[in-house]
Amino acid sequence: IVFYPTQVDHFSFANPDTFLLRYLVNDTYFKDGGPIFFYTGNEGDIEGFVKNTGLLMEMAPRFGAMVIFAEHRYYGQSMPYGEESFKDPAHLGYLTSTQALADFAVLITRLRKTASGAANSPVFAFGGSYGGMLAAWIRMKYPHLVAGSLASAASIFQYPGITDCEAYSHVATRTFQRSAAGCPGRIRSSWDIIDDLGKTGAGLQNLTSMFRLCERLTADDMPALVDWLVNLWMIYALIDYPYPANFLTPLPAWPVKEACHLIVSNEDVLSGVAAAAKLYFNYTGQTACLDISKPYYGGLAWQYQACTEQIEPICSDGVNDMFPAIPWDLSAFSEACYERWKVRPRPHWAVTEYWGRNISAASNIIFSNGDLDPWSAGCVLKSLSDSLVAIVMEDAAHHLDLRPSNPADPPSVIKARAQEADIIEKWIQEYRAAGL
Amino acid sequence: IVFYPTQVDHFSFANPDTFLLRYLVNDTYFKDGGPIFFYTGNEGDIEGFVKNTGLLMEMAPRFGAMVIFAEHRYYGQSMPYGEESFKDPAHLGYLTSTQALADFAVLITRLRKTASGAANSPVFAFGGSYGGMLAAWIRMKYPHLVAGSLASAASIFQYPGITDCEAYSHVATRTFQRSAAGCPGRIRSSWDIIDDLGKTGAGLQNLTSMFRLCERLTADDMPALVDWLVNLWMIYALIDYPYPANFLTPLPAWPVKEACHLIVSNEDVLSGVAAAAKLYFNYTGQTACLDISKPYYGGLAWQYQACTEQIEPICSDGVNDMFPAIPWDLSAFSEACYERWKVRPRPHWAVTEYWGRNISAASNIIFSNGDLDPWSAGCVLKSLSDSLVAIVMEDAAHHLDLRPSNPADPPSVIKARAQEADIIEKWIQEYRAAGL
């Protein structure tokens, strides 16, 4: 575990502050001149990503690679202003992807200067989800520092105007459909039932006890309850891994199948839905009650990013998907962001900064995607050139290829990992041939 | 003349301010779907660049192009904080190249959305000197918005650690040598004479009157006098155009030849040197006296940029060049910057942000260079790939190819302009073939 100093603001000189960013080094397998496998940390404590990302260490021996996990600013222990980091926009405003990429660029430059045997090491960026987007972007913006990237579940197209906001809901619905044909229909029919119950005191009481909620529901809470359930199903699809895992929460193997089993086998629609919710939140049996106000991931800092530059519209129509009809409403969203954070989203900035759909000028990026993962809707699913390679993994959820190998991994994932390693091998040869 | 609103800080949300950036549009020759020729404004009022940059309008009819000249923030009328823009680091700190590139990216996005017939127009960036660097960088950082760039005299390699700081002085000396073989020797011998005169009151008086200085020299002024003269010769080489021009100052054709004629034909070394100085500052005969404290170009805002991210080391050894031995002293430079602006340089940032010498991942950039121009020492002089094309123009000074055509243009420049137009034609065809 190492910390290095970096600018709070790389792109201006109005703020001269610096802070310490954390990164983890594992040079167990490193051979002089071998590659550096660099995980571009995303929205969470970096140690969580180390646990859930086995691929780098598993590939390291073959390549004699050094493995680095770099933490994203404003997460874990990498706080620009310590406990004041979240105080107000003046302190929190430097939480952006462009600043984080610059942190990583500065770190890579530093590593190649200071780490023994790494002066000529090719660097490969790895990341999943938002970390995968960062891995893709660092190759796009800093290709002199990064010889290539593996961007898993990198939804770089999930921005306003370049991907239909319903696509995400379609994939989530399809994942449930594949687990049990009757499952999406049951979930779809739950919304009216919930809506009706929300109209009476007895109904609210009933909902509160069925979902074993921590706080008694009021009519005002109903939109939040629906939102919480919508997100629950989306998250289920996201982490539909083939073995028991503890990514966002401990769950059994194939959790969507388990959830759908509860939903379909239960005569009462709502009982089934509630049982599936309890499975998610209380698989270990240690959760006393369910809290609908708790975010699923990323916590406060990610909420802020989602309110500023990471505007990834998701909507549903209730017809082609299993969700209620929820349009994407930018102005309401903007109001909520201002209310909460005193900032307004800049919804078009990410497309300007990160090239929209026209990334053909980039090179040496692998985009891997699981076809169960709703985020795949905003990902690169087709290869764009010899060096912009898309891999779609059947029966795989959110960046399953990055996770530690498991006997239950589907063949598509085993194949993808082998292909990824071979491509990196090729890029290393090209790097050496170019004398870089 | 149009203004559009843009963020003061594109990369963070700590500062929500916006301001108006100026740009000039000429659509005289524009045909629907034709290209946009976009001048990435550099360190000065944009109207000055319009006058000195004829190439865009001269090429526009052939391509049916719209011509845009966009002003750089903190220059001309594009002041983020009006008259307070230079007040302190908190106001001035947003004067950086990365912010300026983002301004241009936002403007291009906007133009393609709002300008009639421009929705599918390929955009080509043009620029000279620092503007040429911006033209190269905008293609590197925002290739989805810019189909290609003509970067003239773009000294993107003139940064610490990637170009020898003496190279600049060598080229300047060579330019004087080519104008008159005895000229550099005379200039070289002037430094000891000046140094000696600076040691006595009578000598200082003598220098003051010979150079017709506005303020009487003191011993303390001697380093500034030497600095002023060193820069004078460097600037002479820079603007050694083959016809009378008024780029930084009005001068006759081939000013280095004129200056060297005065220097070599004068029996007294110092009289010759002083005559050459007066030629530069008083060619029109309207300057009452010479002011050694006045910067040659860019004014305050450029001084600030040169003190923050645009750290371009220049030095001389007095042996292989015609200058006194002046080492590059970063710490003294940093002190002076802090004294003046309350900021410290970040000398390595530009190499991290703009790829150092390893720009092979870029594409579609023409780097044109005049071989008389000292800045060519930090430019791309050799083609790096089929689409990173270097052109070296014999007998040409600083970005002569961008200037309006003139009967006195050397053949190399006429040829370069034709080659540039043909390459742009090819890029337009590729752009259309890709269906972008």
TrEMBL record, chains A, B:
<dbReference type="InterPro" id="IPR042269">
    <property type="entry name" value="Ser_carbopepase_S28_SKS"/>
</dbReference>
<comment type="subunit">
    <text>Homodimer.</text>
</comment>
<dbReference type="GO" id="GO:0005764">
    <property type="term" value="C:lysosome"/>
</dbReference>
<dbReference type="GO" id="GO:0004185">
    <property type="term" value="F:serine-type carboxypeptidase activity"/>
</dbReference>
<comment type="similarity">
    <text>Belongs to the peptidase S28 family.</text>
</comment>
<dbReference type="Pfam" id="PF05577">
    <property type="entry name" value="Peptidase_S28"/>
</dbReference>
<keyword id="KW-0645">Protease</keyword>
<comment type="function">
    <text>Cleaves C-terminal amino acids linked to proline in peptides such as angiotensin II, III and des-Arg9-bradykinin. This cleavage occurs at acidic pH, but enzymatic activity is retained with some substrates at neutral pH.</text>
</comment>
<protein>
    <recommendedName>
        <fullName>Lysosomal Pro-X carboxypeptidase</fullName>
        <ecNumber>3.4.16.2</ecNumber>
    </recommendedName>
</protein>
<keyword id="KW-0121">Carboxypeptidase</keyword>
<keyword id="KW-0458">Lysosome</keyword>
<keyword id="KW-0732">Signal</keyword>
<dbReference type="InterPro" id="IPR029058">
    <property type="entry name" value="AB_hydrolase_fold"/>
</dbReference>
<keyword id="KW-0325">Glycoprotein</keyword>
<dbReference type="GO" id="GO:0006508">
    <property type="term" value="P:proteolysis"/>
</dbReference>
<keyword id="KW-0865">Zymogen</keyword>
<dbReference type="InterPro" id="IPR008758">
    <property type="entry name" value="Peptidase_S28"/>
</dbReference>
<keyword id="KW-0378">Hydrolase</keyword>
<keyword id="KW-1015">Disulfide bond</keyword>
